[in-house]
Amino acid sequence: MNRISIMGCPMDVATVSETVDVIDHAICKNKFTQHVVVNVAKLVNMQNDLVLSNSIRECDIINIDGMGIVLGARFLGYKIPERVAGIDLFLKLISMSAKKNYPIYLLGSKDEVVKNTATKLRLLYPKINIAGYHHGYFWENEEEIVKKIKVSGAKLLFVAITSPKKENFINRWKEKLGVTFVMGVGGTFDVISGKVNRAPLWMQKYGLEWFFRIIQEPRRMWKRYLVTNTKFLIMLVRHKFSKNNK
For 117, how many CA atoms within 13 A lie in the half-sphere containing its CB? Predict the structure, then answer.
């Protein structure tokens, strides 16, 4: 994978399949890998949140998620083959884990959602080894949850908690989790469990998943996308201008 830097954030240029191969190789070598995907909101928030920025920078793999980042990187002259959506990578890694008998741990979302996610994954991948799961409301007992993950014997940990909590949790406890691979998956459990719907394929193809989310949750999402996307566009133009004048 080729690593680039945009607005102070390192990013790895890779396809979904290339990323899976790198992760699988690291697991086979028992090499710990900390993974994150970067979208517009994270890139914008990183500029003023040093803790989040450090948590992302210290990751071994930083995939480009969100068409905003893909198009922005292309605008800056980088060749980006495709976006690596967190949910797509998650499902590929689940399929790989089922085939190779890698035990996994699911952490995050509400109790009912994570339970339904585990049930759905067992239906989709009968050979999947789910070493354990736990909801995402454990902030008064972080160390206890970390111990549960470690003794579970899981090799892969998927954390479905909102940003920046999940990135900072992973970076804070990475050396004590006992897993070989850890990845934040945001709202993936909500989709897998059936709590919310994912955008149709044609909207995914044209980078309109953000618009689909606004339609589903207009009160919560419209301001978030309006503010962060506007900030990103301003940052992008300034970054392009500064690059051209170096």
Answer: 32
CA dist 139 → 62, 93, 144 (Å): 25, 27, 10
pTM tops 0.90: yes
Reported as a single tens digit per residue, the pLDDT across 164-202 is 999 999 999 999 999 999 999 999 999 999 998 888 888
Q: Give the max Cα distance, the chain.
A: 56
Q: Which stretches does DSSP call E strand in 98-204?
A: 104-108, 130-134, 156-160, 181-184
Q: For residue 124, give both structure tokens.
A: 């989709």
Per-residue tokens: 198 = 């994912």
Homologous superfamily in CATH for domain 2-197+232-241:
AF0625-like (3.40.50.10700)
Domain residue extents for the chain: 2-197+232-241
Collapsed DSSP state (helix, strand, coil) of residue 183: strand
